[in-house]
Amino acid sequence: MASRSGTVAALDVGTSKICCFIARLEEDGRPRVTGIGHQVSRGVRSGAIVDMEQAEAVILSAVHAAEEMAGETIHEVIVNLSGGYPASQTVGVEVQIAGHEIGDGDLRRVLEQGGMLDAHGERRLIHSIPIRYSIDGSSGIRDPRGMFGERLGVDMHVVTAQAGAVRNLTSCIARCHLEIGALVVSPYAAGLASLVDDERDLGVTVIDMGGGATTISVFFDGNVVYTDIVPVGGAHVTNDIARGLSTPLAHAERLKTLYGNCMLSPSDEREMITVPLVGEEDAVEGNTIARSMLVGIIQPRLEETFELVRQRLEQSGFDKIAGRRVVLTGGASQLAGLRELASAVLDKQVRMGRPIRIAGLAEATGGPAFATAAGLLVYAQQAYHRLPRTEGRHQTQQGEAAGFIGRLGNWLRVNF
Description:
It is a single chain. The chain is of the alpha+beta class and 416 residues long. 35% of the residues lie in helices and 30% in strands. The protein is built from 11 helices and 20 strands. A 5-stranded mixed sheet has the order 3-2-1-6-11, sandwiched between helices. Strands 14-13-12-17-18 form a 5-stranded mixed sheet, sandwiched between helices. A hairpin with a 2-residue loop joins strand 19 and strand 20.
């Protein structure tokens, strides 16, 4: 019997690293990673492309490494989006159904109506995700197929981003001779990879802490209902250390990784660290400081980050819906003591998130730093196995791209 599996590829374009995952969809629908490539990021700042040539070179290197490991060539990728200040809102759409039984065609019609909602001015529509349906004004319906009514409505979570940032990203991917199957905002992808079903149903906040930005998503009743971004990330902590201790950025990153902590301990006053000074060639010229001084630089910046996250959640009105559960992901979330600090500032229960829905990941690539890349593969899995799903429309320079779900389904039907 022919195997109903196909190759999918994910590309995580971040401020600190660019990562490519290639996977096969197995018979049970679960993605199994067969190729991985990741490089230190260049030409990306706060998730947005700032140097096209540098970003292109790094993307090509990461993709080539993944292709070499997987033993195959890819032509299409699912890409994350963390730049362009993604913002979300909930909108309602309604269509007339004339009292007949609701079928797949009616669902497609109302979802396409929501997918046609265009962003205003300089913003581009990224996602239009159905949250809940209604029939004749009666809401809270998860699946209206088989029911009867006069009017079918849907509340949709609409995510938009700055058109310039989206165009720069799509242009950079095109220069690498790759097509974009779908754009997925980073915190949505991170949640798909790291959340268990009960968290997605009961309410949870995903905080994806990257190098250039911290992105937020709220899941409730099985769907993502809110996304936002705080333009502060792990690179800002590194810059604070470099400025505060007058040390090169490379040494600041090393100090943060080896000795950094978000919470003071009694031994920090006694433990001494040697800090190389910027511009000094002789290591003897370095400063010796107490570890508590390093912690005193790191802690305020991360406290500020979580305060901003709390403010965004409160202002959005989704703080109560999200409940008391928080999942931290992203490379910057691995700093010692961060979980305790987040719990204290947000007054919520916090756990560390890592990819749990992907097979074939080694320990080195199975941590929080790779949650977004893994989530892009989960997105591909859901796009094929869940119908209907309107994970939106994005435009390339050649015009409006065809929906990823349709292309993946057609590809599987043709090949198998």
